Structures are given as structure tokens and as C-alpha cells.
Amino acid sequence: MHRNFGWKRCAGVAALLTALAAAPLAAHSQNAMNNLLNSLGGGLGSAITGGKAAPAAQGDDLISLLTQSLNNIDEPKEIEIGRQLAALLLGAKPAHPDMALQRYVNRLGRWISLQSPRPGLPWTFVVLDDAGYNAFAAPGGYVFVTKGLIDRCADESELAGILAHEITHVTAKHHLQAIRQSAMAGVGTQLLASQIRTSNVAGQLVKDQLLSLFRTVYTKGLSQSDEFEADRSGVAMAAKAGFDPYGLVSVLQQLRTVTPDNPMFTLTMSTHPAAQARLDYLEQSMGRQLDGLGGSRATIAQRLGGGGGGGAPAAPAPANRPAPAVKKAG
User: Fold this and answer.
1) Residue range 64-100, pLDDT digits in tens
2) Which residues, other chains included, contact 305 with Cβ-Cβ below 8 Å and sequence gap of 6+?
3) What is the pTM of this model?
4) How far apart are CA 127 and CA 35, in angstroms?
5) Where are the domains of the chain?
6) Burial class for 159, CB neighbours closer than 10 Å (0-12, 13-18, 19+)
7) Coil/strand/helix, residue 257
8) Given a cut of 60, is residue 119 above it in pLDDT?
9) DSSP state of 140
10) What is the DSSP string of 214-250?
């Protein structure tokens, strides 16, 4: 790819989002956040706070799902696995309190998801209140990005490329396969299932064991081939959605400059192939197919309205051109 992208940190974005984060919350903000999360998908807010939520699978049922053949895990089961995982993750790391930002990221993510092979999933995008740089997905349509990652996005096309990468992990069932493999390997699951069936084990044990299983997968990371596929398909998806396809390239060029001892990037760097290897793969698999393609490079501050108080604007219309062809891996 013969296009030179320097990382241009947008001071306006950081200033705006810092101001939003520092703004005092209304007394009803927790209820408002719960309502937002519930409206986004699967009663997540209630699942976190212990309120009434949609019926969920019991711990042994979930273990049973995870140890089934992947062909036997249909879409409703996949969504249930993802919903429980999302609730566990949000219980450990809270959502960021800025609801305008949450709505914006959801609107952006849902627009991009419409260009994916599985637009009908209950797509839910959550910004986590974390200064680190990370993004990850759960089965069934759940995608998480940290506030620290958003602060470091120079423009919307970079965030769009990251979201498209994570959407590909979901549509290709990368995490579902990895979680199932860990469950089949017996990472605490056989013991857990036995305890559930033979004693009055508290729900907390189920939660802790499942969280341990999920943590194993997310700290180990996915395979290199899964990450390469997500990069390749994510670039094409972002372009199809009307964004500059070089947004993800810009992100990878920035990651290439990160020092290994930077604590804000530790998890991202340890769970993904080296940024240069990812850039080389995109060069090899897509060549110069992206040259000449344009698309939106609006800043996040512009999308939030510049004043921080408005809702998210409409997503850009798709470009009047086909998405770039994607060569198959191998």
C-alpha cells in the first residue's frame, strides 16, 4: 500500500471527550445508563445490576452449550453465550458514563454491521471506562472499545476500521470457536459441571469459573490467521460503509511505533500479531486495490456535534463504488 499516513492526533477530540468524561452526572445517570444498555441488546443493564432481565441460561446450560459441536450452536445460542459474556465483562469493567458517546459509537457500529454478512444480529457496541487501548468482541454481536482507544483515534475512519475488524471476528465466529475449544479442553468446565449437578453451588462460583474461561481466551488472543482475516475483511467492510479504507492502516502504522513497555497498549500488543506483519499481510492480500478509494475522514468531535451535547449524527452514506475485492487467505 503506497500511501503515507502519519498519525495526526486530534487535540479537539481529546479535549472534547475529556470534557464529556469530567462533566457532572445527573442523579438519574445510572438508571439512564442501564436503560441505554438494555435498549442496546439483551437486557445488559439489568444483568449487570441484578435487576430483572431476559431469562438467561443457567451455568450448567451454558457449559453444555460451549461443549457442543459448533454446528449445534445455532444463532440464538450464540447470542445467549455472547450476552452472558458481555454481562460478565461489564460487571468487571464499567461502561463509560457519557451516553452521547455511547449512542454515537452504536450508531456508527450498527451502520458498519449492516455491510457485514450477518446484519441481523442484535449488534451492541459499548465504550468501556478504561484509559487503556483495546477493542474486543463477544459472540452474537457484542463489541467493546475502551475510552482510551477512542481518545487515540485521529478521525472517524480509524474508529470505523477498528469496529469493522471486531465485527468480522463476530461474523466469522472467531471467539465462539476459541471459547468452545477452551471449554472442550477442560479449562475448569468439567469440574464446574460436576459441582453444579452434585451440590448447591452458589451462582458466584458459576460466574467466577465462566469468567476464568473467558479470561483465558481473551488474554491468550486469537490465532494469527483470525486476526489477518479480520484486518482484510474489516478494511473491505469499512470501505463498503463509505469510510476511507486506509483508516485501519493508519491505526496499524501508529501501533507499529508503540514501545513494548507502554502499559496502555500491553494487552493489545500481546494478543495480536505485530503491527508490521499485519501491514505486510494487507499489502500482500490487497495490493494497491485501495489506492484511489476515498471515503469519510470526519473527526469524532465533528460527529459529536462539536459541543458535546448532541446525539450522534447519521452515518455517512456508502460510497458510490463497490467494496474492494478481497483475496482469500492462503
Assistant:
1) 666 666 677 889 989 988 998 898 888 888 999 999 9
2) 311, 313
3) 0.73
4) 15
5) 11-20+28-301
6) buried
7) coil
8) yes
9) T
10) HHHHHHH---HHHHHHHHHHHHHHHHHTTB-TTHHHH
